[in-house]
Write a structure and sequence with these properties.
Blueprint lengths: L2 E4 L4 H9 L7 E3 L9 H11 L3 E4 L13 H22 L2 E7 L22 H14 L5 E6 L2 E2 L6 H11 L4 E3 L3 E2 L2 E2 H17 L3 H6 L3 E4 L6 E2 H12 L17 E3 L19 H7 L6 H14 L1
Parallel strand pairs: 1-2, 1-3, 3-4, 4-5, 5-10, 6-9, 7-12
Antiparallel strand pairs: 8-11
Helix pairs in contact: 1-6, 2-3, 3-4, 5-8, 8-10
């Protein structure tokens, strides 16, 4: 498998590169190596490398900043995937792309399925939805993995922020009326590799994946809120170095607050729960419960 990864410096791109590091000819590019606002540069990169599969983990993810930086968000999240899909279609490469629960408005009571009507609440979600639509309109053999609340072993994330704040502050107030599932980037990398290998094993990757092209939900199982997510992180950390004895806020002391008490420029969906059964039925990829991965992640942070 000759693979190209875009977005190597992000949480998911970093996880993909670690997952695929033994592949001969693996090419991982970050923003310093490839300008995603330049469709010609994107096309040239794909046509030069001639990969079997492209994993597009590059994204504009500054949800609040996107509200005043619309052009940049759409350049990376919509126009870049469109150019990438066109290049993949020309070269015969298959494409694995990533999207977000933020394409939904969060109003549904149960889990979102792929066929549910979209309705992004902000610019970030709208730009990611435009990227999905660009791939749907392209002849490229592609899958879009919609995920939620992603965290990884590289870079900043919610868990690291909670651990830092719990050693600095005497109180933590965390939103409790948004539901979702923290999804470890390593699980997404695992599912992505599995899909690509299944396609390539057929000898006609583009044909096989073309028959299965579309959007798939890919997030951890179970459900939680940001409040209980924070409590989970602190409950594991409070017994481990370097946090044991240093946390000013213990897990039960995390205060639950409504979203209205923590206003942000961009609205977030109240319900980000995704039904991932379509992914499992089609590709056999099962996503485990969020809690086990979060607990293991905190233990890795402790050992680092």
């Amino acid at each position: 498998m000759k693979a190209m990864i875009l977005g190597r410096n992000g949480q998911l791109g970093w996880a993909l590169e670690r997952r695929l590091h033994g592949l001969p000819g693996l090419l991982a590019l970050g923003r310093d190596e490839l300008d995603l606002s330049d469709p010609a540069a994107i096309a040239a990169a794909v046509e030069s490398a001639r990969p079997d599969v492209v994993f597009n983990a590059a994204a504009y993810t500054a949800v609040d900043r996107a509200e005043t930086d619309r052009d940049a968000a759409f350049a990376v999240n919509a126009r870049a995937p469109e150019a990438l899909a066109a290049a993949c279609a020309r070269t015969g490469a298959i494409l694995v792309h990533y999207s977000t629960d933020y394409v939904f408005d969060g109003s549904k009571a149960g889990r979102w399925v792929e066929s549910d009507p979209t309705g992004p609440l902000g610019v970030y979600g709208a730009s990611k939805l435009a990227g999905e639509q660009a791939l749907a309109a392209s002849p490229c053999a592609s899958v879009v993995l919609r995920t939620s609340w992603v965290y990884g072993d590289h870079g900043a994330n919610f868990a690291k922020t909670m651990l830092k704040l719990a050693t600095e502050r005497d109180a933590l107030r965390v939103v409790s009326d948004q539901r979702g599932t923290p999804t470890w980037a390593g699980r997404l990398a695992e599912a992505s590799e599995s899909i690509a290998r299944q396609a390539l094993a057929t000898g006609d990757a583009a044909g096989w994946l073309g028959e299965r092209r579309g959007v798939y939900h890919a997030a951890a199982a179970g459900e939680t809120t940001w409040t209980d997510y924070a409590r989970c992180v602190l409950s594991v950390a409070q017994t481990l170095p370097p946090w044991a004895g240093r946390l000013k806020v213990q897990a039960p002391q995390v205060e639950a607050i409504p979203t209205s008490a923590y206003p942000t420029p961009a609205k977030r969906p109240a319900n980000s729960l995704l039904d991932c059964s379509h992914l499992h039925r089609t590709f056999g990829c099962a996503m485990p419960d969020w809690r086990g991965d979060v607990e293991a992640y905190v233990r890795r942070l402790s050992a680092a």
